[in-house]
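Q: I have 249 residues here and want to know how they pack in 3D. Can you give me a structure?
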Amino acid sequence: MTAKGVAVVTGAGSGLGRQITLTLAEAGWQVTGAGRRLAPLEETAALAPAGSVQPVAADVTDADSVAALFDAVAERHGRLDLLVNNAGTGAPAGAVDEVSPEGWQSIVAVNLTGSFLCAHHAVRMMKAQDPQGGRIINNGSISAVSPRPRSVGYTATKHAITGLTKSISLDGRRYNIACGQIDIGNAATEMTQQIAAGAPQADGSVLPEPTFDPRHAAEAVRYMAELPLDTNVQFMTIMATTMPFIGRG
């Protein structure tokens, strides 16, 4: 075990996942950065301190792929101290009558089933290792609390992440496993470029929304991660101060 511990971050090839991976690595964590495509993960690793990030191509929607990911972590490090469930998608967008059953299943597969599969293997490792325990941080998003227009798949799965967080937190108590959730609003990444240009509002208008530096979100994740296991941030909301969240709709 290193000074800070061993972490897995999903969706590590871009956006918040890359920023979280780099922030943890720079703080002394050994991080396995996971994502579907190896090349972006290798780019993330190249930006981190030498040897601190292990890129592993993994599809969180595929049970065998996720199992192989955690097998790789066990083989390299022998334990796991932190899982950041960050991988997610909002596509395809639409209202409940617009999203096809196939589109719905694709969002559920990434956002919800993917987080379940990763937590499944992480908890098994954390229960079995010595010393026992660890931490899981789920990326819930502002949409875990309040929806945007035409986002039924994203919103429903992010609300479900809150249930997953609570269940893991409850069931993990006796095993020294902490689980918390960070809800991030309008961090300036590739995913929010359209929001900064103009996002649909509840009244039917389209307005640009403020964003904030994703490094602050990554530092918040690091803060949650580095607490002692007898202390937990159950839910944290971090957002652009003036984004339309309080009073949305």
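Q: Anything worth noting?
A: The helical segments are 15-26, 38-47, 63-77, 101-128, 152-172, 193-197, 214-225. The mean pLDDT is 95.
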